[in-house]
Design brief:
This protein is of the alpha/beta class. The protein is built from 13 helices and 9 strands. The chain is 48% helix and 19% strand. It has an 8-stranded mixed barrel, surrounded by 5 helices. Helix 9 links the parallel strand 6 and strand 7. Helix 3 crosses helix 4 and helix 6 runs parallel beside helix 8. The relative contact order is 0.11. The protein binds ligand C2E and magnesium ion (MG) (3 copies). The site of ligand C2E has 24 residues, from strand 2, helix 4, helix 5 and strand 6.
């Protein structure tokens, strides 16, 4: 039965038709070979200063282009990569590729101030994250201060030795940002002890900022929190002029979102943002 459904799913790729189990197994098998088959690539989304429109950084976002499925969303394959352990390989590749791209931009005369790279909680569990980042920085020659690592609150709260690793990364000279801030659970007391420089307000709060009084209140609270803790605050998922104006009005001058740019290929970034 599973086999018949699997064959069906082969022709009509859709999780609802193949059933979760079969779908997962097939994706897993494909995912495992994605790097050797050169199917992964990175897009880069600009981070800008709202009042000047100046480029302050880019976030690297991984993309999987499967020959049959087409583009598979990271929302789908990152959790799978995390469950299977493939994330450590993938995460290393993303880090290395992002650093190499920064060096290429620098060589091409585009001074991208910094690159943000997402780290999964699983990348902290093996205890090698500091050594890995150090090795990649040395191999690519990227200055550590050009790299910002994005972790979620769960990394800070759930990793046994989070403090040690976060401090180790900080000692390398790389920056740290808390991604999707406000959606997880983090203790402010804990946060205060971490050498973090940036809070990223989650897109879910920005989306309905003008319709939902709670979201508005949360966004303002995060901006205030960042201010009082001397952290920089960047809003994710800014899609409209009104959202940008709101943020500026409330003291947040950094944003990332479709209003400024979608995640793009490296050459598009070069074309559009080169002074
Ligand atoms: P994230 O790190 O919070 O990244 C922001 C996501 O929001 C990206 O989705 C981006 O394309 C999307 N986005 C940016 N601006 C807007 C906007 O104005 N409107 C809307 N609707 N969306 C916007 P993406 O690229 O699909 O990535 C989803 C998530 O997958 C990321 O969330 C991150 O958690 C994870 N991810 C992506 N690349 C990597 C990676 O290399 N490693 C790890 N561990 N996770 C990654
Ligand atoms: Mg991120
Ligand atoms: Mg986010
Ligand atoms: Mg996320």
């Amino acid at each position: 039965q599973a086999k018949a459904r699997g064959r069906n799913g082969y022709r009509f790729y859709s999780p609802s038709m193949t059933g979760e189990g079969v779908e997962r197994l097939r994706l897993e098998a494909w995912l495992r070979r994605s790097l050797e088959k050169d199917e992964m690539f990175l897009n880069y989304q600009p981070q800008v200063e709202i009042d000047t429109g100046r480029l302050v950084g880019v976030e690297a976002l991984v993309r999987w282009n499967h020959p049959e499925l087409g583009l598979v969303s990271p929302a789908r394959f990152i959790p799978l990569a995390e469950d299977t352990g493939f994330i450590s390989q993938l995460g290393e590749w993303v880090l290395a590729e992002a650093c190499r791209q920064m060096v290429r931009w620098q060589a091409a005369g585009l001074a991208v101030p910094k690159i943000a790279v997402n780290l999964s909680v699983r990348q902290f569990e093996r205890g090698t994250i500091v050594a890995t980042v150090d090795r990649i920085l040395r191999a690519t020659g990227l200055e550590p201060r050009r790299l910002q690592l994005e972790v979620t609150e769960s990394v800070i709260m759930n990793t046994g030795d989070a403090r040690t690793y976060i401090n180790g990364l900080h000692d390398l000279g790389v920056g740290l940002a808390i991604d999707d801030f406000g959606t997880g659970y983090s203790s402010l007391a804990y946060l205060k002890q971490m050498p973090v420089q940036t809070l990223k307000i989650d897109r879910s709060f920005i989306q309905d900022i003008h319709q939902d009084a709670n979201d508005e209140a949360i966004a303002i609270a995060i901006i205030q929190l960042g201010k009082s803790m001397n952290l920089s605050v960047i809003a994710e998922g800014v899609e409209t002029d009104e959202q940008a104006a709101f943020l500026l009005r409330h003291g947040c001058n950094l944003a990332q979102g479709y209003f400024y740019s979608r995640p793009v290929m490296p050459d598009d970034l070069l074309r559009r943002w080169l002074p």
